[in-house]
Amino acid sequence: MVSGKDDDARVATRGDGILAGKRILVTGVLTPKSIAFAIAQACHSEGAEVLLTSFGRAMSLTQRSAKRLDPAPDVLEMDVTDADQVRAVAGAVRARWGSLDGVVHAIGFAPEDCLGGHFLDAPWPSVASAWQVSSFSFKTLAAEFVPLMPSTGGALVSLTFDGTLAWPLYDWMGPAKAALEAIGRYLARDLGPRHVRVNTVSAGPLETVAARSIPGFRTLKDAWSGQAPLGWDAADASPVADTVAFLLSDMARGISGEVVHVDGGYHSQGAPLLTTAEPHEQEEE
Protein backbone atom coordinates (compact mmCIF):
# COMPACT_ATOMS: atom_id res chain seq x y z
CA MET A 1 0.00 0.00 0.00
CA VAL A 2 1.96 2.98 1.25
CA SER A 3 5.37 3.46 2.77
CA GLY A 4 5.47 6.00 5.57
CA LYS A 5 9.23 6.44 5.37
CA ASP A 6 9.50 9.34 2.92
CA ASP A 7 7.90 12.49 4.30
CA ASP A 8 8.82 14.46 1.16
CA ALA A 9 7.06 12.17 -1.30
CA ARG A 10 3.89 13.37 -3.00
CA VAL A 11 1.59 10.39 -3.28
CA ALA A 12 -0.62 10.07 -6.32
CA THR A 13 -3.95 8.27 -6.43
CA ARG A 14 -4.08 4.72 -7.79
CA GLY A 15 -7.09 4.08 -9.97
CA ASP A 16 -6.89 0.33 -9.28
CA GLY A 17 -6.46 0.51 -5.50
CA ILE A 18 -8.70 -1.19 -2.95
CA LEU A 19 -10.44 2.13 -2.27
CA ALA A 20 -10.89 3.16 -5.90
CA GLY A 21 -14.04 5.24 -6.22
CA LYS A 22 -14.48 5.61 -2.45
CA ARG A 23 -14.92 8.96 -0.72
CA ILE A 24 -13.33 9.17 2.71
CA LEU A 25 -13.36 11.86 5.41
CA VAL A 26 -10.26 11.82 7.64
CA THR A 27 -10.13 13.79 10.89
CA GLY A 28 -7.10 14.52 13.03
CA VAL A 29 -4.41 15.36 10.49
CA LEU A 30 -1.91 17.82 11.92
CA THR A 31 1.64 17.28 10.69
CA PRO A 32 3.07 14.64 8.32
CA LYS A 33 3.99 12.65 11.44
CA SER A 34 0.34 12.38 12.45
CA ILE A 35 -1.12 8.89 12.28
CA ALA A 36 -4.09 10.49 10.53
CA PHE A 37 -1.78 11.86 7.82
CA ALA A 38 -0.43 8.37 7.15
CA ILE A 39 -4.04 7.14 6.95
CA ALA A 40 -5.01 9.90 4.51
CA GLN A 41 -1.93 9.05 2.46
CA ALA A 42 -2.81 5.33 2.41
CA CYS A 43 -6.43 6.03 1.44
CA HIS A 44 -5.34 8.43 -1.26
CA SER A 45 -2.77 6.06 -2.73
CA GLU A 46 -5.38 3.26 -2.77
CA GLY A 47 -7.70 5.27 -5.00
CA ALA A 48 -9.95 7.16 -2.61
CA GLU A 49 -11.01 10.78 -2.81
CA VAL A 50 -10.12 12.31 0.53
CA LEU A 51 -11.34 15.27 2.56
CA LEU A 52 -9.58 16.37 5.73
CA THR A 53 -10.89 18.26 8.75
CA SER A 54 -9.16 20.49 11.27
CA PHE A 55 -10.06 23.53 13.34
CA GLY A 56 -8.74 26.68 14.93
CA ARG A 57 -5.01 27.33 14.93
CA ALA A 58 -4.30 23.84 13.61
CA MET A 59 -5.97 24.62 10.26
CA SER A 60 -2.81 26.07 8.70
CA LEU A 61 -0.75 23.02 9.71
CA THR A 62 -3.32 20.65 8.25
CA GLN A 63 -3.50 22.62 5.01
CA ARG A 64 0.28 22.51 4.71
CA SER A 65 0.29 18.75 5.26
CA ALA A 66 -2.50 18.29 2.70
CA LYS A 67 -0.23 19.70 -0.01
CA ARG A 68 1.91 16.59 0.24
CA LEU A 69 -0.88 14.63 -1.48
CA ASP A 70 -1.46 14.96 -5.22
CA PRO A 71 -4.01 16.38 -5.75
CA ALA A 72 -4.09 18.09 -2.39
CA PRO A 73 -7.39 17.45 -0.58
CA ASP A 74 -9.44 20.31 0.81
CA VAL A 75 -9.51 20.92 4.55
CA LEU A 76 -12.86 21.68 6.19
CA GLU A 77 -13.08 23.31 9.60
CA MET A 78 -14.79 21.08 12.17
CA ASP A 79 -14.66 21.16 15.96
CA VAL A 80 -16.07 17.77 17.03
CA THR A 81 -17.37 19.25 20.29
CA ASP A 82 -19.64 21.61 18.31
CA ALA A 83 -22.59 19.59 16.99
CA ASP A 84 -23.75 22.44 14.75
CA GLN A 85 -20.34 22.67 13.11
CA VAL A 86 -20.22 18.90 12.55
CA ARG A 87 -23.69 19.11 10.99
CA ALA A 88 -22.53 21.96 8.74
CA VAL A 89 -19.56 19.92 7.52
CA ALA A 90 -21.87 16.99 6.79
CA GLY A 91 -23.95 19.39 4.69
CA ALA A 92 -20.84 20.57 2.86
CA VAL A 93 -19.84 16.96 2.13
CA ARG A 94 -23.35 16.23 0.81
CA ALA A 95 -23.20 19.29 -1.45
CA ARG A 96 -19.73 18.35 -2.72
CA TRP A 97 -19.97 14.59 -3.13
CA GLY A 98 -23.60 13.62 -2.58
CA SER A 99 -22.54 10.57 -0.59
CA LEU A 100 -19.72 9.35 1.65
CA ASP A 101 -18.17 5.89 2.01
CA GLY A 102 -16.02 6.16 5.10
CA VAL A 103 -15.03 8.25 8.11
CA VAL A 104 -11.82 8.02 10.13
CA HIS A 105 -11.98 9.19 13.74
CA ALA A 106 -8.38 10.03 14.68
CA ILE A 107 -8.98 12.55 17.44
CA GLY A 108 -7.89 12.51 21.05
CA PHE A 109 -7.30 15.11 23.72
CA ALA A 110 -6.92 15.33 27.48
CA PRO A 111 -6.05 18.36 29.64
CA GLU A 112 -2.69 18.19 31.41
CA ASP A 113 -4.31 17.47 34.77
CA CYS A 114 -5.74 14.23 33.35
CA LEU A 115 -2.29 12.79 32.59
CA GLY A 116 1.05 12.17 34.24
CA GLY A 117 0.04 10.67 37.57
CA HIS A 118 -2.99 12.85 38.34
CA PHE A 119 -5.62 10.11 38.08
CA LEU A 120 -6.94 10.56 41.62
CA ASP A 121 -6.81 14.36 41.47
CA ALA A 122 -8.24 15.10 38.02
CA PRO A 123 -11.44 17.20 38.27
CA TRP A 124 -14.59 16.20 36.44
CA PRO A 125 -14.58 19.14 33.98
CA SER A 126 -11.17 18.02 32.70
CA VAL A 127 -12.22 14.38 32.52
CA ALA A 128 -15.45 15.37 30.76
CA SER A 129 -13.45 17.31 28.18
CA ALA A 130 -11.20 14.31 27.53
CA TRP A 131 -14.19 12.00 27.12
CA GLN A 132 -16.14 14.34 24.87
CA VAL A 133 -13.26 14.87 22.46
CA SER A 134 -11.70 11.40 22.58
CA SER A 135 -14.79 9.18 22.94
CA PHE A 136 -18.24 10.74 22.55
CA SER A 137 -17.20 12.52 19.36
CA PHE A 138 -17.13 9.15 17.56
CA LYS A 139 -20.89 8.94 18.10
CA THR A 140 -21.23 12.58 17.04
CA LEU A 141 -19.51 11.85 13.72
CA ALA A 142 -21.55 8.70 13.17
CA ALA A 143 -24.86 10.49 13.74
CA GLU A 144 -24.10 13.16 11.14
CA PHE A 145 -22.14 11.27 8.47
CA VAL A 146 -23.74 7.82 8.34
CA PRO A 147 -26.88 9.29 6.72
CA LEU A 148 -24.63 10.30 3.80
CA MET A 149 -23.56 6.70 3.18
CA PRO A 150 -25.21 4.75 0.35
CA SER A 151 -27.72 1.94 0.92
CA THR A 152 -24.92 -0.53 0.21
CA GLY A 153 -23.19 0.70 3.38
CA GLY A 154 -19.93 2.25 4.47
CA ALA A 155 -17.33 2.13 7.21
CA LEU A 156 -16.27 4.00 10.34
CA VAL A 157 -12.81 3.47 11.83
CA SER A 158 -11.40 4.93 15.05
CA LEU A 159 -7.94 4.81 16.65
CA THR A 160 -7.26 3.65 20.18
CA PHE A 161 -4.41 2.72 22.49
CA ASP A 162 -5.44 -0.56 24.10
CA GLY A 163 -8.17 0.42 26.54
CA THR A 164 -8.22 -2.99 28.24
CA LEU A 165 -5.06 -2.27 30.25
CA ALA A 166 -3.80 0.38 32.65
CA TRP A 167 -0.74 2.20 31.28
CA PRO A 168 1.82 4.21 33.27
CA LEU A 169 0.97 7.93 33.38
CA TYR A 170 -1.75 7.59 30.68
CA ASP A 171 -4.35 8.08 33.40
CA TRP A 172 -7.75 9.38 32.19
CA MET A 173 -6.95 8.84 28.52
CA GLY A 174 -7.07 5.12 29.32
CA PRO A 175 -10.74 5.12 30.40
CA ALA A 176 -11.49 7.50 27.51
CA LYS A 177 -10.04 4.99 25.05
CA ALA A 178 -11.91 2.14 26.76
CA ALA A 179 -15.10 4.15 26.27
CA LEU A 180 -14.20 4.76 22.62
CA GLU A 181 -13.79 1.03 22.04
CA ALA A 182 -17.15 0.35 23.71
CA ILE A 183 -18.84 3.06 21.66
CA GLY A 184 -17.47 1.36 18.55
CA ARG A 185 -19.16 -1.91 19.55
CA TYR A 186 -22.51 -0.22 20.20
CA LEU A 187 -22.30 1.68 16.92
CA ALA A 188 -21.55 -1.62 15.17
CA ARG A 189 -24.72 -3.02 16.75
CA ASP A 190 -26.95 -0.12 15.73
CA LEU A 191 -25.46 0.56 12.28
CA GLY A 192 -25.13 -3.03 11.10
CA PRO A 193 -28.68 -3.09 9.67
CA ARG A 194 -27.61 -0.16 7.47
CA HIS A 195 -24.60 -2.22 6.27
CA VAL A 196 -22.23 0.21 8.00
CA ARG A 197 -19.18 -1.41 9.58
CA VAL A 198 -17.54 0.07 12.69
CA ASN A 199 -14.06 -0.97 13.79
CA THR A 200 -11.26 0.33 15.98
CA VAL A 201 -7.52 0.00 15.43
CA SER A 202 -5.33 -0.32 18.52
CA ALA A 203 -1.94 1.03 17.49
CA GLY A 204 1.40 0.62 19.17
CA PRO A 205 3.19 3.79 20.34
CA LEU A 206 4.00 6.11 17.45
CA GLU A 207 6.01 9.32 17.45
CA THR A 208 3.41 12.06 16.94
CA VAL A 209 2.87 15.56 18.29
CA ALA A 210 0.16 14.17 20.59
CA ALA A 211 2.45 11.41 21.88
CA ARG A 212 5.06 13.93 22.96
CA SER A 213 2.53 15.42 25.37
CA ILE A 214 2.14 12.10 27.22
CA PRO A 215 4.54 11.83 30.18
CA GLY A 216 6.73 8.73 29.98
CA PHE A 217 6.04 8.12 26.29
CA ARG A 218 9.72 7.60 25.44
CA THR A 219 10.09 4.89 28.08
CA LEU A 220 7.00 3.10 26.78
CA LYS A 221 8.17 3.39 23.18
CA ASP A 222 11.65 2.09 23.96
CA ALA A 223 10.27 -0.90 25.87
CA TRP A 224 7.77 -1.85 23.15
CA SER A 225 10.18 -3.45 20.70
CA GLY A 226 11.55 -5.66 23.49
CA GLN A 227 8.16 -7.33 23.88
CA ALA A 228 6.61 -7.15 20.41
CA PRO A 229 7.38 -10.42 18.55
CA LEU A 230 7.45 -8.61 15.21
CA GLY A 231 9.39 -5.66 16.59
CA TRP A 232 8.04 -2.13 16.40
CA ASP A 233 9.18 1.02 14.61
CA ALA A 234 7.64 3.99 16.41
CA ALA A 235 8.61 6.25 13.52
CA ASP A 236 6.58 4.31 10.93
CA ALA A 237 2.80 4.71 11.00
CA SER A 238 2.27 2.91 7.68
CA PRO A 239 1.29 -0.49 9.20
CA VAL A 240 -1.53 1.25 11.07
CA ALA A 241 -2.51 3.31 8.02
CA ASP A 242 -2.63 0.28 5.73
CA THR A 243 -4.84 -1.58 8.20
CA VAL A 244 -7.27 1.34 8.35
CA ALA A 245 -7.38 1.46 4.54
CA PHE A 246 -8.20 -2.26 4.51
CA LEU A 247 -11.00 -1.80 7.07
CA LEU A 248 -12.47 1.00 4.95
CA SER A 249 -12.43 -1.21 1.87
CA ASP A 250 -14.94 -3.80 0.67
CA MET A 251 -12.34 -6.47 1.45
CA ALA A 252 -13.35 -6.04 5.12
CA ARG A 253 -17.07 -6.30 4.36
CA GLY A 254 -17.61 -9.02 6.99
CA ILE A 255 -15.76 -7.29 9.85
CA SER A 256 -17.48 -5.06 12.39
CA GLY A 257 -17.29 -4.40 16.12
CA GLU A 258 -13.61 -5.36 16.21
CA VAL A 259 -10.59 -3.86 17.95
CA VAL A 260 -7.74 -4.75 15.61
CA HIS A 261 -4.28 -4.62 17.20
CA VAL A 262 -1.53 -3.24 15.01
CA ASP A 263 1.28 -3.25 17.54
CA GLY A 264 3.83 -5.81 16.40
CA GLY A 265 2.07 -8.45 18.51
CA TYR A 266 2.85 -6.70 21.82
CA HIS A 267 -0.66 -7.21 23.19
CA SER A 268 -0.39 -11.00 22.90
CA GLN A 269 2.68 -11.34 25.13
CA GLY A 270 2.73 -11.55 28.93
CA ALA A 271 6.34 -10.47 29.46
CA PRO A 272 9.31 -9.12 27.52
CA LEU A 273 10.89 -11.59 25.11
CA LEU A 274 14.01 -13.44 26.24
CA THR A 275 17.05 -12.52 24.15
CA THR A 276 18.63 -15.95 24.62
CA ALA A 277 17.17 -19.28 25.57
CA GLU A 278 17.69 -20.09 29.21
CA PRO A 279 19.25 -23.54 29.77
CA HIS A 280 17.02 -26.08 31.46
CA GLU A 281 17.96 -26.86 35.00
CA GLN A 282 19.52 -30.29 35.33
CA GLU A 283 17.12 -32.71 36.88
CA GLU A 284 18.26 -34.54 39.96
CA GLU A 285 18.64 -38.26 39.50
Structural summary, described in words:
With 285 residues, the chain is of the alpha/beta class. The protein has a single domain (20-266), classed as Rossmann fold. The chain is built from 8 helices and 9 strands. It has helices at 35-45, 59-66, 83-97, 124-145, 173-191, 209-212, 217-227, 238-248, and strands spanning 11-12, 23-26, 49-54, 69-70, 75-77, 102-105, 154-160, 196-203, 259-262. The strands form 2 sheets. The chain has a 7-stranded parallel sheet, with helices on both faces. Strands 1-4 form a two-stranded parallel ribbon. Helix 1 packs across helix 8, helix 3 packs parallel to helix 4 and helix 4 (124-145) runs parallel beside helix 5.
Helix content: 25-40%
Number of helices: 8
Specify the structural class.
Answer: alpha/beta
Spatial sequence of strands, sheet with the most strands: 5-3-2-6-7-8-9
Could you name the CATH topology? Answer: Rossmann fold
CATH superfamily: NAD(P)-binding Rossmann-like Domain
Oligomer: single chain
